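quick one before i forget lol
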Amino acid sequence: MTAPTLFDLFRPRRLARAATAFALGFAASQSDLAAVGGTLAEVRERGMLRCGVDTGLAGFAEEQDGEWRGFEVDLCHAYAAAFLGDADAVDFVPLTTAERFEALSDGRADILLRNTSWTFARDAQRDVTFVGTYYYDGQGFLTPRDLGVASARELDGARICVMPATTTALNLDDYAATYGLSFEEVLVDTPQEGLQAYSEGQCEAFTNDVSSLAGLRRSLDGPEDHVILPDVISKEPLGPVVRASDPDFAEAARWVLFALIAAEEYGLTASNAAAQAQDARNPEVLRLLGAEDEIGAALGLSPDFAMKAIEARGNYGEIFERHLGTGSALGLRRGLNAQWTRGGLLYAPPFR
């Protein structure tokens, strides 16, 4: 293995790790990397990555016949592959909205992959770190088609099913204040409870993230009899969340996500990543896949961490299309979640 480059040393908090690496002859074996400590070492000692996921959200995370499926589920597999070299070394921890941050804090989950919006209050006031955005969402409204409503502004005086103590509830209050509307809030603890209350006629509309509403509508009798209104009343950047007490783990999690996004941009898939590590001519692709410079060492990861993550369940686009895209049951268009080269917001910093 080559000696560390300046890339390995360019951040102050990496200096101690770099010194240890020199003393060990910079041998990047799993045992050496685990010696760095922190969450990554705990995960490796346990041999399992604990991912906090939704209790059941179509397209994102739901358990069917004892097997977890969904967009966020596949992200967990990718993280396990990058951190442990085994995409199946995962433990899914279903969490309600109310308990998700506590579960992260007390160690029941190593990382939240649970449709959690990145907001100022959460970032500044909670002991957590948002490491990126994997889905750009927004809050909308589900209503019966025969209600004849074309806009959320026509819901003045209506009963709205909403989960309390969430950004969803706060956004609803802001929307009402902005347009001088009055809503009667019907409080529900989970999206499933909200859908149940809505289907029983306890509320005229159910408000949640548009992606969530699209998945929930599938389970209604006669989904075509219900519409998601065109109004999107908030920005909901959903992303992985880790404990703020371990910035090194946050950084590793951030660059695994970037690797999946960059892989789509460069045409790297689950089926061709290994071949591209040998045949690619683009230096950045070779760096990304660990064929040059071995940049994973700066994160406490193996040189081929990105390739393992990509091979686990595919690049970002493959995962999106499988669970959320136009060919899936949800039938969502990429929109803001398209690559920056195609008019979206997905963008990975350079791997150099």
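fyi Residues 131 and 254 are 5 Å apart (CA to CA).
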